[in-house]
Structure formats: C-alpha cells, structure tokens
Amino acid sequence: MVDQNRWVECVASHTRAQDGCVRVQLVPLTDEERDAFILEDVVDYAEQLQRDRALTAEAALAKAGDELDAALRLEHATAAERGHRRFTAIDTSGTAVGWLWVTPFDAPTTPGVAFLYQLTVKPAMRRRGFGAAMLAALEHRLSADGIDELRLNVNDGNVRARRLYVRAGYHMVRRLDGKRQLRKRLGTTD
After folding, report:
1. Strands 171-176 and 85-90, bridge-based pairing
2. Percentage of the chain surpassing pLDDT 70?
3. Taking CA 136 as the corner, what is the angle to CA 134 and CA 141, rounded to the nearest 5 degrees?
4. Which H, E and C letters describe the chain, residue by residue?
5. How far apart are CA 170 and CA 147, in angstroms?
6. Contact 43, 61 (CB under 8 A)
7. Is residue 187 very low, low, confident or very high in pLDDT (cuts 50, 70, 90)?
8. Residue 10 pLDDT more than 60?
C-alpha cells in the first residue's frame, strides 16, 4: 500500500532524493514541446491504426497525420482562451518526460472541478514511475489552485492507465462508450 502523504510530499518537493522516489516538476508547455506533444499523439494514433486496422506502418502514419495534425494544432492554438492548461513534466535533470493537458470540467453545476484531458509519458520514459509522478504533481498543483476534484476518461482497453488511476485513488463515476469516467477528490485520501 502506498503511503499517500509520503507520495505527495515526495512529488511536491520536486527534487530527487536517494529514496528512489520519482519526482517531476510541471512547467508551462513551450512551442517546441507542443510540437513534440503533437508528434507523439500522431505516432500513438498511427500505432493504434496499425494494430486495429492492419495498416502498414507507413500507411498508418500518413493516415494519422492527415487526420490529426491540423486538428491538434488548432486545439493547441485555442487552448489558453478556453481556459485549458498544458504542462511539460521535467525530471530532476531537466529532461522533459511527458505532457499534461487539463481543461475546465464541462458542467456549470460543478465548480472547482477540472478534467484531465490528456496525460502522455514519452515512450522512452515509460514504465519508470513518471506517469504516477506527473499525476501526483498535477493533483498537488490543482489542489493548491483551489480545484477540489479531478475527473478523467480512460479507455477500457488501456489496462495500464486504469491501474495507475486506481492506485492513485480514482473511483469510477460512470461508464461511457468504451471508456470509464473516473474522479478523485483532491486534498483528501478518498
């Protein structure tokens, strides 16, 4: 069982210690990191197309680029005016390990709720604890900013992500088509 207080303290301090704790710092997304974020989204989608539709790697990458690149650039270009917050997560050496995208929750009756639109760990950094560290750092930051609850959607087939969120204390709110909406009250241990 993870000691929630130690985990948050570990992540909140943003420095690497000899205790084996993975730490990240969230910084605003730069244009350069935005381009890397978009490229990773396109590559991830191409891999999904290759698996699900039996396309060649080249055909899948071309299709993913055609379908996503322009739409993602537009979403990023209008993110700030829609109240979205985008971060690059950096480790203690200053290396970017992934990205987060948080939006206001789309229900006017739920003030103090944010929505985790995307959490992406760079492929070379996966399976090292950075996803959990990024999530904990985001929760800490949002809680400090007065956000009481974080919600997110996770695809049913994304077993690793579902495990990450359960370990971090997220609970299912409802089932959607092929995914689940999860939530966590911030600043509490529930």
Report:
1. unpaired
2. 86
3. 95
4. CCCHHHHHHHHHHCCCCCCCCCCCEEEECCHHHHHHHHHHHHHHHHHHHHHHHCCCHHHHHHHHHHHHHHHHHHHHHCCHHHCCEEEEEECCCCCEEEEEEEEECCCCCCCCEEEEEEEEECHHHCCCCHHHHHHHHHHHHHHHCCCCEEEEEEECCCHHHHHHHHHCCCEEEEEECCEEEEEEECCCCC
5. 15
6. yes
7. confident
8. no
Q: pLDDT tens-digit profile of 67-119?
A: 999 999 999 999 999 999 999 999 999 999 999 999 988 766 677 999 999 99
> pLDDT at position 12, please?
46
Whether residue 185 contacts residue 149, with contact meaning beta carbons closer than 8 Å, is answered with yes
Which domains, from first to last, does the chain contain? Answer: 24-185 (3.40.630.30)
Copy the structure tokens of residue 42. Answer: 């396109």
Contact call for residues 134 and 100 (beta carbons, < 8 A): yes
Residue 188 banded pLDDT, cuts 50, 70, 90? low
Cα distance between residue 122 and residue 163, in whole Å: 18
